[in-house]
Amino acid sequence: MSTTALPVRAAPLRALAGTDHKRVARNAGAVAFVFFLAGGVLALIMRSQLAADGGVVSQNTYNQLFTMHGSTMIYLFVVPLALAAGLYFVPLQVGAAEVAGPRLALAGLWLLVAGGVSMWSGFLTSGGAASASWWGFDPLSDSIHSPGSGMELWIFGVMMVTAGQILWAGCILLTALRRRAPGMTLMRMPVFTWSMVVTCLLTVFAFPALIVALCLLWAQRHFGGVLTGGLGAVDYQQLFWFYGHPVVYVMFFPFVGMVGEIVATFSGRRFFGYNAFIVALLCFAGLSMTVWAHHMFTMGQATNKYFSLTSTALVVPAGIEYLDLLATLWGGRLRFTTAFLFALGFIVQFLVGGLTGIILASPPLDYGLNMSYFVVAHFHYTIFAGSAFGLFGGIYYWFPKLTGRMLGERLGKAHFWLMVIGTNLTFFPMFILGTDGMTRRIASYPASTGWQTLNVLETVGAGVIALSVLVFLVNVLVSLRSSEHAGDDPWGAQTLEWATSSPPPRHNFHTLPPIRSYAPLLDLRDARERAMP
Amino acid sequence: MKRAGIVLVAWGAWLGMMTAVMVPFASIRGPFGLHAVEPIMLGGAAGACLLAGVVLWRLESRTAKGDERPRVIAEESLASGALVCGLCLILMGAGLTALGGGGLVREARARKREAEPR
User: Fold this and answer.
1) Is ipTM beyond 0.90?
2) Contacts with B, A 174-203, CB within 8 Å
3) Residue A468: inside a domain, yes or no?
4) Residue closest to A366 by CA, chosen among A284, A315, A311, A319
5) Residue-range definition of the domain harbouring residue A508
6) Number of CB atoms found within 10 A of residue A42's CB
7) Does B35 map to a domain?
8) Number of domains within chain A
9) Is residue B98, in this structure, part of any structural domain at all?
């Protein structure tokens, strides 16, 4: 299908209102990264408080800090960045000239900005920001226990951000399903595009539950009686976790896809077990919609047996995916670039998060560990030690395509090793503290518990993570000032985005190579090799 | 593009099957029984996904019958920004309206209570 463009307005206007999916995704990524830095600062203050065993901030301020840290990292950083990556690369990977619904994608960006500002503006109100955790459970979040407008701003902010994410997911899903280039069949879509398809399915069909839950919460705060009859507050939790568990996978699948692309490229091999991987992804995503109430095992108000069964069943598709990733590495000509190291970091560290998840999927064990630091360690291993490593792998891998410049390898490797040390130093001791009985969300603890040494160690680790992020920012600035051009395909990659210029032109492609598999560029190289005498 | 709807239909069917698996757990009950909200939410998502798949399938069959017009691509859209601003204002306006309306009812009730002989 041919395309024609409407006339272009002035550059400043284009920066704010440009509908090019690449510009929208870049802006969204930048906004999300600013929120990541802000959320990271909150984490450092919290860690200082726990290392000093209280005294840095008050209990109420500490409540606001962990609420806004969790909310920022989930609603404003990982999910938006995961979807922004899809918004940028899915049209390129399927050979489309544009994303489906570019205006809706732009609206999603502004909803992210408006929602983020709304959530953070709570700090400017007299009562402070929201302090009922990132899930905002009733009655903790009602007008008695969370008075003031900080909570209101949080509710509106989260609603706006979530609405924007649903819009983005719809655009990406329709692009992958309806805007593919000739020859790009469903079973020729790259692994990352498939991971975005399942991510968007989860977003479109699970995220509306959060908006409903927040509307009910708002009504409960002002009029009461909404979450008090019947199961009441438990129904809020059911609605929240119907969103709250799939969102964990929205923060996982895109990074599995990124790691899949990186592993295949830097092994110089085709992705092993492509068909099995896609089927496993679809089953995994479906199962992840059916496990939400394992967060409610200890409440006695959920069908524990069913949710324990489905939660444990997740290991089957997860195992297939891990097998495919490892088998792709097996026998490959490995190139240990920074992107590849981050991908390996993802594979190893996510495994720790995944295996400890099996422990928490068992109700008898969960009764002992729920609300302890063991849970905090588990989800930080999945989301930070796992997904954030996948994300940085993706940034190092795709940075040349985004900017036309290479990120420095020496600084990149320093970033990687600092982050590995910092991450494990911060989050591994939490397993020990959790099994020793340290509960989450406490601002201080008795000296007799002997927890301070491990807490100091964790705080040192958090500082090392901050240092690694600083190294990354320096690397980005140095690389952007470099005059050396990366070229169209500096890695010898396999998928369609590397067949166009770096950065890609407005309509993505001037010409497309023939598409006969999920790795068209590898097909071209193979054909060229076969043709050589 | 053919067969795009099949992804949604297949995934919706998978969710539907998982909802069906959930229902027998009601008879087991044990310490905790089945809660209606659980199959309603999962079944609702399954139904919505199936419906979206069928709509997409229908759409494809119509487009397949020779829609080869050039696609017009917008370079920018101020209207999208205005839409978001409007949505924010609507949310705030709806909140204020609900608060005001609720307040009026509350005041009317209080007046009635005061007027009643004690």
Assistant:
1) no
2) 177-180, 186, 197, 201
3) yes
4) A311
5) 19-531
6) 20
7) yes
8) 1
9) no
